[in-house]
Amino acid sequence: ISGDGGAVVYALNDGRLVLVDLRAEKQSVTWQAHQSSIMSCAINTDGSVVVSASKDTSVKVWNAKTQAENLELDSHGRTVTGCDISANGAMAASISNDGLLKVWDIYTGREQFSTQLRFRNPGIDQLTFLSQRDINFTCAISADGAVVAATSSGGTVGVWEVTSGRERMMFAADRHGANDCDLNEDGSLLACALG
What is the pLDDT of residue 128? Predict the structure, then answer.
């Protein structure tokens, strides 16, 4: 749902996106966005920009009013399981099923930040790469695009500053998984859906 409550976007299993104008109570607009299943989609605050992530390894940026593709970001090389867009529609975050998290400037298509999500195993005093059980990943970006967070189904949660790349925190949240996350407007608070 857009931040202003005026629109909602959702994905169908066949690669189509559906956009509903809630204010005008218009019938939904549907378009073919990807050739494979869409794993995640998001819309910015005013409902003008949509971002979608797919099994086809791409992240696409859409003009919500015309359904025209503005940009394709395809440097993940693996299924992209999560995406989010900043409130102003200038930055997008994406994460693939190997834990590779990226932040993009959606006007230029340039990558602004990239990291590999790792997890802290309780009882072991070192960071290790993700295990086979970490198969589903989600991400969130703050309203201004300055902070990004990511979770894995293995229970890992991480938060970073986009410009500096500084890791704010990384922890194992729950042995049953961290299924989703969201940041408040300035990135100072993180909410996670666990187990």
Answer: 46
> Which regions in the chain score pLDDT beneath 70?
119-135
Buried b (16+ CB within 10 A) or exposed e, 126-144: eeeebeeebbbbbbbbbbe
Using alpha carbons only, how large is the chain's radius of gyration in Å?
Answer: 16
**CA 181 to mean position of chain CA atoms:** 10
Every domain of the chain and the residues it spans: 7-194
Asked whether the whole model's pTM tops 0.70, one would answer yes
DSSP code, position 78 = S
DSSP string across 49-77: EEEEEETTS-EEEEETTT--EEEEE----
Cα gap 17→54, rounded to integer Å: 11
CATH number of 7-194: 2.130.10.10
Q: β-strand 178-183 against 59-63: which pairing, if any? A: unpaired
- Is 194:180 a contact under the CB 8 Å cutoff? no
Q: What is the pLDDT of residue 25?
A: 75
d(CA 47, CA 3): 8
What pLDDT score was predicted for residue 4? Answer: 93
